[in-house]
Amino acid sequence: MSVRAVGLVQRIVSLHYIPVLCFAAITAVAFAQYHGHAFSSNHISRHDGYHEAVHGHDHGHVDYYTHPKYEFDYKVEDHHTGDQKSQHEHRDGDAVKGSYSLHQPDGSVRHVEYYADDHTGFHADVKYSTHHLHHHY
After folding, report:
1. Which stretches are tagged as biased composition: Basic and acidic residues (predicted)?
2. Segment-wise mean pLDDT, segments of 10 residues, the chain, 137 residues
3. Element housing 124 (H / E)
4. CB 101 within 8 A of CB 74
5. At a CB cut-off of 8 Å and minimum separation 6, what does 5 contact?
């Protein structure tokens, strides 16, 4: 798969996850109302640019292109279930940059910073931090 195709797939996937992430945040808030303290938040900013006509080579067909630009973030903290995660992503044209963190079942936290563009493809820097679990007997 070419770098351009991978970038396109990543952009489509990230755009399709926005409604899922919003639903997850709303569900966490609703669940927390009945099951203790939890916190969630989300923010989405879309910046639609000017629609440019892109002329094709076939019988006068005209496509339109809008410079893609958005930013979103979300955060969930539910200490009752241990669900703790957050993500922030920013896109301007063909460049996407973001980060997320996720508390894993073993107590470690995965931190990922990523970026993608049409020239270099997708890159991610994954780090783990370990929190020592103390068992009380």
Report:
1. 79-95
2. 51 55 56 60 67 62 78 90 92 94 91 95 94 57
3. strand 121-129
4. no
5. none
Contacts within 8 Å (CB) and 24+ apart, 12-19: 14/89, 14/91, 14/96, 18/44, 18/72
**Residue 46 half-sphere exposure toward CB, CA atoms < 13 A:** 5
Q: Report the C-alpha gap between 44 and 89 in whole angstroms.
A: 10
Closest listed residue to residue 7, CA positions, set 113, 119, 118, 112: 118
Alpha-carbon distance 4 to 23, whole Å? 30
pLDDT value at position 9? 47
With beta carbons less than 8 A apart as the criterion, state whether 24 and 50 touch: no
Sequence-separated (6 or more) residues with CB below 8 Å from residue 57: none
Say if pTM beats, i.e. exceeds, 0.70.
no
Can you spell out the DSSP letters for 54-105? Answer: EE-SSTT-EEEEE--EEEEEEEEEETTTTEEEEEEEEEETTEEEEEEEEE-T
